[in-house]
Structures are given as structure tokens and as C-alpha cells.
């Protein structure tokens, strides 16, 4: 069964505690926390205090996605709340191994993400160190964008690596995910689907989550 990691970027921030409880009740596997600083991407979302508050309101593992410059300055504080901390390759090109090491020293799973324009082969050398690779299927920084088809080739590339090397590295996809694009991602080899608008902006959160889990 596919795992679902709803992005609280699309949630009602004024009722975040209740939103988290609903996600847990309706079968979400993770809660995806999109941390944006206004520099790596244009948008500003939230920081460590919000992630810590989410943690207090759920037993679900937090899937923390750092879209920030110099994430190594903040890794430890996000590791205190997150179960998975994912960095952007484009933000840590010169310090990937040391950042992954720092995350793992905190007892947290390490992920690495790539933007749509980054060749997935650029991060293959780090696959053996990762617990998760996050394929962005939209440009990071804004919800509600349309799914980019070139992400499917990246998913297939990662899936082939997993099969050849018998690794447990998870493949996560984020951006423009719904029941139709999610099906294509799962068929290509995705393990985890991140969905924001599809889960929070539809009429039925429970049905939206269920429709992704059964893909």
C-alpha cells in the first residue's frame, strides 16, 4: 500500500492541532512540513516552533522538508521534532555528506531532494547514505501547481537503483499529486506521495487520503 504524507502547507493554520488529528484519524502515514525561508524559494512558511507544535499534536512521524539556504545551521533543531529531515541538494551541494551525517547522528532519517531542473544522476553517489529521496514534481515554493511529467523518469531511475542494489531507500514525490498523477508515480516506483491541495482543499479529506493509499 502506498504511504501518504499530507502537506500542512495547505492546512488551516488557525486550526493546525485539529488538522493534525484529522490526518491521523483518516489514515495519513506521515505529516509533511514544508519549511520555506523566502530565500531558497520566494515563499515564507514556518520554522522550528510550528514543527514542534505539530509534533505535540500528533503521533504521526513528521516528514520535514527544508527549502532553506544554509540548512546545516538549523538541522539539529529540526531533528528534535522531525522523524525524517530532507534537505535540498541545490542548497547543500558542497556539504551533502556532512549534512547527512549530522542528521543521522541525531537519530533521524535523512532525505535529499532535487528540483525539477536538476538531473537525478547528480545525487546518485549519495543514495547509499539516504533513507529517502524526494523528487519534486513542481517547482518548490508554491502549492497548487501542475504535475511535471519529467519527474516520472527520475522516479524510475531511483526505482531501478533500489532494485539493482537491494536498498531500502524510500522514493517520495511532491507536487501536483492527486489520484491520477499519484497512480502514475506509484506505477513508476514511488513509495510515498506528498499531497497538499488534494487532501485539504477537497470536500472529503478521508476519501482523498484513502484514494491515494490504495494506488
Roughly how much helix do the residues carry, as a percent range? Answer: 25-40%
Largest beta sheet: what is the strand line-up?
A: 1-8-7-6-5-4-3-2
Overall radius of gyration:
16 Å
Oligomeric state of the chains present here: single chain
SSE order: EHEHEHEHEEHEHEHH
Mean pLDDT: 96
Largest sheet: 8 strands, parallel
Strand content: 15-25%
Low-confidence parts: none
Q: What would the principal axes of the Cα set say about the shape?
A: globular
Total strand count, please?
8
Count of DSSP-assigned helices = 8
Question: What structural class do the secondary elements suggest?
Answer: alpha/beta
Distance between the termini: 7 Å
Please provide a written account of the structure.
By secondary structure, this protein is an alpha/beta fold. The chain is built from eight helices and eight strands. It has an eight-stranded parallel beta sheet. Helix 4 links the parallel strand 4 and strand 5. The longest helix has 15 residues, at 151-165. The model has no long low-confidence stretch (mean pLDDT 96).
What's this model, at a glance?
The chain is of the alpha/beta class and 215 residues long. 33% of the residues lie in helices and 19% in strands. The chain has helices at residues 16-25, 48-56, 75-79, 96-105, 151-165, 179-188, 197-200, 205-213, and strands at residues 3-6, 31-36, 62-67, 84-88, 109-114, 132-136, 170-174, 192-195.
